[in-house]
Amino acid sequence: MIAIPLASFGQPAPQQEVKKGAIEGVVLVETTREPVRRVQVVAYPRRTSAGPGATMGQPQSFTATTDAEGKFTIADLEPGDYFLNIQKQGFSIARRSTFASSMQIKVGQGETVKGLRYALLPQAVIAGKVLDDEGEPVQGAQVQALAQQNMRGRKSWLPSAQGVQTNDRGEFRLANLVPGKVILQVTAGYQSMMAQEQARSGQPAMGYADTFYPGVTEPARAMQVELTAGAELTGYDVQLKRCRFTGSAARCWRRMARRPRNSTSPSRRERSRAEAWG
Predict the structure, then answer these.
(1) Which residues are paired to 225 by β-bridges?
(2) Is the pTM of this model over 0.85?
(3) Domain that holds residue 178
(4) Which of 94, 42, 36 shows the shortest CA–CA distance to 70?
């Protein structure tokens, strides 16, 4: 007779232990190669291996902070693919870095991925004022910096950073801007919204159209601002255009620098250069 232990029946096979990995790297200033301390580095799991225990109980993200030498270590990682997010107040990611590693990292079982390097650029800042058609400061106007990007094969001006509102002095300060060319867009806010709503209901109304620096209502005619890393540009004042809203459009008259002294009505040239905004 052969004795078979009862414990061998119905017992699951022991799970193979999954060895966890880690990510190590350093964060530097793109232009000077100096280390950046207190940078928050977050690893987000994208896809994990199908091995036992690879996805069970896995957190949504793993976070580390760089030390005085700009170094960081993210440990206790399940095998799989990760995407890194790097943040530091006053800095932006150098997207066209000459030395930065990929943000997508693959970690194997028990593997420590070393030698990663990432680059930050000091933010650029644009500051100025928003004025109405009579030169008075406008409070609560929304100001945005737009950068040209490709959308479905076409170039469009899209927000490059979070917009801000003007204070009681009409002042604004746009921060966290990346190097490159941008245009400034100003929306008058509540007054403009009320005028547009009234016009849509069939009642013409006066209000302010969206205005681009230095004071035009078409993005194609806006002056582009060149931003460099760490630049703080001031004096970018925008004077809003008062317009007559009818339906879904606004018609704005521009004041001409020269005009005949004996003229009491807009010239043919002035009428032909009226700007339409919708």
Answers:
(1) 182
(2) no
(3) 124-277
(4) 36
